[in-house]
Amino acid sequence: MKVIDVSWPISRATTGYKDRAVVKFDEIKNFLRDGVRETNINLSAHTGTHIDAPSHFLRDGKTIDQIDLSRFIGRCKVLDLTDVGEQITRNCLANYEGEINEGDIVLLKTNNSTKIATDKFSPHFVYLEFTGAEYLKEKKIKAVGIDYLGMERSQSGHPTHTTLMHADIGIIEGLRLRSVKKGSYFFVCLPLYTIGIEAAPARAVLISDNM
Amino acid sequence: MKVIDVSWPISRATTGYKDRAVVKFDEIKNFLRDGVRETNINLSAHTGTHIDAPSHFLRDGKTIDQIDLSRFIGRCKVLDLTDVGEQITRNCLANYEGEINEGDIVLLKTNNSTKIATDKFSPHFVYLEFTGAEYLKEKKIKAVGIDYLGMERSQSGHPTHTTLMHADIGIIEGLRLRSVKKGSYFFVCLPLYTIGIEAAPARAVLISDNM
Fold first, then answer.
1. Residues in A touching B5 (Cβ below 8 Å)
2. Could you say which of A55, A186, A193 has the minimum Cβ distance to residue B8?
C-alpha cells in the first residue's frame, strides 16, 4: 500500500485566502515547564486543504456534518491541466471526455501546485470557470478538487460553487498535487467532523495498491 | 462501499478533557449580512478524535507532521472490551491472542462508547493500563485507538503513552465505536497536517467492501 499525502501543510506561515492571517498555534503547556506539550489551534474553516459545504454560499445549504462522507472517498481521476493559463472551461475538460465517469472524484492538477505553501496569496490562480462546473455537473461526478485555496476566483454570484452545490457535488479546495501523476487512484479526504458550520479543514490522501 | 464514521462530533458543546472548554466557532461572515458564511475554529489539538504524536510526552519526540501517515491507514481489528470494568490489562488483551497480528491497527471498543459526546467529562473512563500497552508493543501493531478522550488516565509518568511512543505505535484517542461490531475492517484516520505540534484533531472512518 502506498499513501500519497496531497494536503496543504498548516502552520503559522500558511498562505491565507487573500492573505488573511488564518492560523495561530497557542502553547498551553510546554515540555520544560510542564513535562508535556499542549497546543491550541486557531484557524479559519477554509484553511489549507478544506471542504466547502453548501451552506457556505446557499441560504439553506447543508453544513459539513450533513454531507455524506462517502462523497469524498472512492475512485478518483487526476487530470493534468498544467497547460491551462487561468480558466478551466468546458472545453478544457472535454479533452478528458472518455476518462471522467459518473461517480468519479475529479482532481484538477494545475500550475497552482507549483506554488509554495507559504507564498503570498496569488490572486491569479487557475480556477474552475462556470462552464467547467456545468460540464462536471453533467458528468454526475461525486466531488471535485483543485490545487489552490479557492476554486471560483471572482466570478460574480459564485456560479462555480453554486452550480456544484445545487448538484450535490463535493468541493475540495487547497490540494497539493505537484508530485502526483495524472491517472486513477483511490482517494480519501476527511474533513473534521464539525457541527453546524459551512466548511472544515481536511486531510487528503491518495492510496494505491490493494486495501 | 460502506463508510462508518467513528469520529467524535466537534461543537461548542463537545466534552473537553477534564472539562476544559476546548471549542469555539467564531462567525466571521454571516449569510444575511454578507451573502456568505465564514467561520473561524478555535480548538485544542486534543479535541474529540485526535492523534497524539510522540512530542506530546517525549522531549525529542516526533511532531504530527513527522509521523508516517500509513500508520493510521490499513487493516484494523475492533476488539469488544465492553465487559472490562476500568483497566484494559495484558490479561484482557490476551483473550484476543490469535486475532491481533503484526501491522494491525487495534481499536479498543469499551463502555466509553455509550457516553454522549457532550456529556460532562468522565474521570472513570476505561483506559489502557500499562501492561496492556506492553502487550500491544510485543504484538508489533501499527496503531491503537480508544473510545474516549484519553487512553492513559492518571498513571504516574504516563507509562501507557511513553511505551507506545517509544515503540512507534500510533495513538488515536476520542473514537466513537458504539455502532461498530467487533471484527476486521479497513481503517483510515487522517489528522490535520499541522506542522511542529504534538497532536492534531482527526477524522476516522471504517471502510468495508472493495475499493
1. 69, 193
2. A193
Closest Cα in chain A, distance from residue B19 (Å): 15
- ipTM score for this prediction: 0.96
8 Å CB contact of B1 and A45: no
Residues whose CB falls within 8 Å of the CB of residue B102, separated by 6 or more in sequence, listed in order: B139, B140, B141
The type of residue at A54 is P
pLDDT digits (tens, 9 = 90+) for B75-107: 999 999 999 999 999 999 999 989 999 999 999
Question: Minimal CA–CA distance to A150: which of A84, A101, A199?
Answer: A199
Please report, for residues A194, B11, B45, B154, B194, the alpha-carbon distance to residue B42 in angstroms, rounded to integers and kept in the order given: 11, 10, 9, 27, 14
At A70, give phi and psi (nearest 5°): -65, -15
Helix B130-138 to helix B159-166 angle (10° resolution) is 10
pTM of the predicted model over 0.80: yes
Cβ–Cβ under 8 Å, residues A150 and A129: no
Tell me the nearest-neighbour CA distance from B136 into chain A, angstroms: 23
Q: How far apart are CA B40 and CA A43, in angstroms?
A: 6
Dihedral angle of Cα A141, A174, B204, A192, to the nearest 10 degrees: -110
A7: chain B residues, CB-CB within 8 Å? 193
Contact yes or no for B78/B107 (Cβ under 8 A) = yes
Q: Residue A49: which residues within 8 A CB-CB, separation 6 or more?
A: A6, A7, A8, A172, A173, A174, A175, A176, A189, A201, A202, A203, A204, B193
Q: Which three cell numbers stand for residue A112?
A: 497552482
Task: Tell me the pLDDT of chain A (211 aa) as tens digits.
Answer: 899 999 999 999 999 988 887 799 999 999 999 999 999 999 999 999 999 999 999 999 999 999 999 999 999 999 999 999 999 999 999 999 899 999 999 999 999 999 999 999 999 999 999 999 999 999 999 999 999 999 999 899 999 999 999 999 999 999 999 999 999 999 999 999 999 999 999 999 999 864 4
**C-alpha cell of residue B102:** 503484526
Cβ contact A204–B197 (<8 Å): no
